[in-house]
Design a protein that fits this description.
Blueprint lengths: L1 E2 L2 E4 L3 H12 L8 E4 L10 E5 L10 E5 L1 E5 L4 E5 L5 E5 H12 L5 E4 L5 E2 L4 E4 L13 E11 L8 E6 L8 E10 L2 E10 L8 H12 L5 E12 L11 E3 L15 H13 L14 H16 L4 H8 L4 H8 L5 H10 L2 H8 L1
Parallel strand pairs: 1-10, 2-3, 2-11, 3-9, 6-13, 11-17
Antiparallel strand pairs: 4-8, 5-8, 6-7, 12-15, 12-16, 13-14, 14-15
The structure holds flavin-adenine dinucleotide.
Flavin-adenine dinucleotide binds next to helix 1, strand 4, strand 16 and helix 4.
Length: 354
Amino acid sequence: MKDFDYIIIGGGCAGLSLAYELNLYKKFENKTLAIIEPREEYKRDKTWSFWKVIDHNFDDCVKKSWNNFTINSKVETQHLQSNDYPYQSIDSGLFYSKIINELKKNKNIIFLKDIREIDINNSFIFNSVPLPVKNNDNNLWQHFCGIEIETKKNTFDDSIINLMDFDCEQRDSVHFFYTLPYSPNKALVETTWLSKMSDEEKDYDNQLKNYIENNLKIKDYNIVYKEVGAIPLFYPPSYYKRNKIDIGTAGGMTRLSTGYTFLNIQEQSKYIRENIENIFDLKRYEINKKYQFLDKIFLNVLKKNPKRMSNIFFKMFKTSPNTVIKFLSNKSNFLEDLTIISKMPKWIFLKELF
Ligand SMILES: Cc1cc2nc3c(=O)[nH]c(=O)nc-3n(C[C@H](O)[C@H](O)[C@H](O)COP(=O)(O)OP(=O)(O)OC[C@H]3O[C@@H](n4cnc5c(N)ncnc54)[C@H](O)[C@@H]3O)c2cc1C
């Protein structure tokens, strides 16, 4: 059986980002890598969006970038602008083909479908496949369905995204719509829930149809792409092994209050690349403890007060756009944290704190 210096389990966002980063910095000139990925073919299956607060390797996979966004409820709309931190959307199809084309040029990198084909005992393992999660009524998820629609007439203002529209049924959960206009006649419209993910919330097609027809007032459109997903708003279980590091969602790279993961994956990849020579002694990369602590309180508030959350999100965005973006993207300083915290309703947050 063949063995490799490194094995990446799961050639998704984290596995491929890490392989790309290591390859870019020539870490496979004298080392070998096997990427274990069972999927038969790579095609567009996700749209990764985030505020660009750091540089990353995938600017050429950006579908579109915006400086303006709104959040709104039945009664109010807030308009925010940030020229410092554009909101970017990455097309996973472009991302996969860019990376795979590059990695295939290196004969020290091999793609395999099944880990049983190789000997793993002498390798260092980067694992991006989370252990199965037991059904737990306490776990929160961000679950969603997005469709890209195309209209005959020009319908959208493609200079502005709608980050959260709470003008919709809440059903005792937290529910909003998200609209990313790629062009005047194309947009991704997503129904998103922050909840324990009950089956009743999963009538996504109806929710999207109602919203597009009644809120966006669009009757004539074609669906050209669909994505469905559920991001765990809790850290997946993990076990320690000296020759293994969990990466991506499995490695705790999701910011629990927002579901944003993509840029954290890029930072984790960079950290591993910078320390690859001492990989056996490497301290685990994690999202700053300050955010872990604040997000835990935030999610407890959300669990107990779903009806108040639209109001809480509104208040949070009533600071300067750059402050809130930095906070949501793990880049805020102490003063900025205090500004955000001061916008929160004190009593319910204090109750969760104690
Ligand atoms: C639809 C969707 C949209 C998202 N949008 C955003 C966004 O806009 N912004 C953001 O920051 N985050 C977003 N996320 C969250 C996060 O960025 C993504 O989930 C991201 O893909 C996580 O990367 P990953 O490598 O951990 O997991 P994945 O990308 O899911 O990769 C895991 C890989 O493991 C493979 N695999 C599965 N089982 C095995 C096995 N037994 N052995 C080997 N391989 C296996 C899978 O085929 C897959 O390729 C989104 C998530 C989803 C699901």
